[in-house]
Amino acid sequence: MASVSSLASTLQQQLADALTAALPQAGTADPLLRRSDRADFQANGILALAKKLKGNPRELAGKVTAALPAGELIKEVEVSGPGFLNITLADRAIVETLAARAADGDRLGVPVNAGAGTTVIDYAQPNVAKEMHVGHLRSAVIGDAMVQILEFTGENVVRRHHIGDWGTQFGMLIQYLFEHPDELKHEGGGADGEAAMSSLNRVYKASRALFDSDEEFKARSRDRVVALQAGDPETLAHWQRFVDESKIYFYSVFDKLDMEIDDPDIVGESGYNDMLEETCRILEETGVAVRSEGALCVFFEDVKGPDGNQVPLIVKKTNGGYGYAATDLSAIRDRVQNLKADTLLYVVDARQSLHFKMVFETARRAGWLNEDVRAHQLAFGTVLGKDGKPFKTREGTTVRLQDLLDEAVERATAVVREKAGKVGLSEEEIVENGRYVGVGAVKYADLSTSAVRDYKFDLDQMVSLNGDTSVYLQYAYARIRSILRKAGDAKPAAHPELELAPAERALGLHLDGFGEVLSEVAAGYEPHKLAAYLYQLASHLTTFYDQCQVLSDENAPEVVENRLFLVELTARTLHQGMRLLGIRTPERL
Ligand code: ARG
């Protein structure tokens, strides 16, 4: 993607520029630079270029090598194999480039994407009057990370929480509330999310039981749906009570998740009611949708049922009711035409992929989506229990999110407490850190595997201090902060004149890649690549500690300063990277 360069371009970018300059006839040919084990970088692009210029690749590689400026960037170039270049950078260039990044505040030298546009992201969309489940957790966690990452790269992001707040099931609920007006009140009142959910649950169960056993109640409930759809004020007022109570509950869960959700961004299914009729009219008039057995349907060549017949997307049912698809199609019109989005991103369970495929295709046929406006489902897999089966309680019921988060925090607090003595944490700090470690563990486990894969929810593994966990990263951060506190008068300062140890070079080169990883993550909607980058960063740091003392009397003062500089930049990169994933990094752990 085109980018406005920040303070300094990365080493990789500088190297790519030097290679291009060394061979003017290459034009815009990609030097195909990769990090390499043999040297710092390997350039593989000579092969394709030689083919294009009908030349000998090794000869061409030799020419490029000779033409490379003997400046300060490159220390050594070696031609290998059929015509690869193995390139070692000068230590000075590494430290100078990192120093420019370090001088760039929170942005750390990461460029803002010049071609940024507006993305509407649909995430964290639970359903009214229902308990949130682990699927809603995934959407919230992955969505929130994508919001932060996209905003950091310069994208204008509009959040939409498409909550399930409409549908025929409300007939039964509202009717029950009409007949038992006091039932939705709960003890504790106000902002108590758990109490709100338990009274919603009670009403849900009681009304369901009545609906299933009492034919007359069933009939009254059906009439209530009609009243709701007709916009009867009293019916709407009762409906609103369900929405309000549910929001109290949603907010309590989001709060536990340490996640900010703003009320104006909650635009549920009901928010598109006024558009449904027009959406259907346009689809019918343009011939995108056709009448079939009384319903308004859109057909697709490649969507067929087991009997071989095409299975349509139903936008208007035979009884005149609108469903999930009509709402999503209306939401697309709103997001494109009113919110001026050029990208629509949906963080939704992979089990809804067929729905989105049909909805997007319908919107394309209607012209709402086109080359200038694209839609993408960031589909995520199922959360499994330790046994590899869909995540359930021992009794086979859905696991309550509050319980799950509470347990994560409890276990994390125990882990934090065990080490707290050494660091001298107060009880208050133990409790606060326990929360950040516990919630971080849940988020990180979710974000560190590719979203589309199913993943096992295993709390023991999540709060483990070893391995690819958030706690490991949080400890890496806290350890650096502790070293910086202990450094006393010695302050971090870059010393480009120094020769670097191998572990210092490896850490420095990895730090250089932060911006490139972020732009890849933003372009492909793959937060797990940021998690992997941060984990590798912490691993480089561990090796660095093994091989290089930071605060040692045997070090010359400039070596101490340069190492403090490297670890401080590492800490800031960890902090920023974790923040983008929605995970806190306590100062002392
Ligand atoms: N509320 C839905 C569910 O719980 C998810 C909504 C996804 N977003 C959308 N625009 N359809 O499954």
Q: Could you please describe the fold and organization of this structure?
A:
The chain has 589 residues and is α/β, with parallel strands linked by helices. Among the domains are: 3-89, Arginyl tRNA synthetase N-terminal domain (Gyrase A, domain 2); 169-262, no CATH class; 401-580, Isoleucyl-tRNA Synthetase, Domain 1, CATH 1.10.730.10. The chain is 52% helix and 11% strand. It has a four-stranded antiparallel β-sheet with strand order 2-3-5-4. Strands 8-7-12-13 form a four-stranded parallel β-sheet. The protein has a three-stranded antiparallel β-sheet with strand order 9-10-11. A hairpin with a 3-residue loop joins β4 (74-80) and β5 (84-89). The structure holds arginine. Residues 122, 125, 127, 162, 164, 328, 346, 348 line the site of arginine.
The average pLDDT value, as a whole number, equals 93
Oligomeric status: single chain
Q: How are the strands of the largest sheet arranged?
A: 2-3-5-4
CATH superfamily of the domain at 401-580: Isoleucyl-tRNA Synthetase, Domain 1
Low-confidence stretches: 1-7
Number of helices: 20
Task: Name the overall outline.
Answer: globular
- Structural class based on helices, strands and sheet pairing: alpha/beta
Radius of gyration: 28 Å
Distance between the termini: 39 Å
Please state the second-level CATH architecture of the domain at 401-580. Answer: Orthogonal Bundle
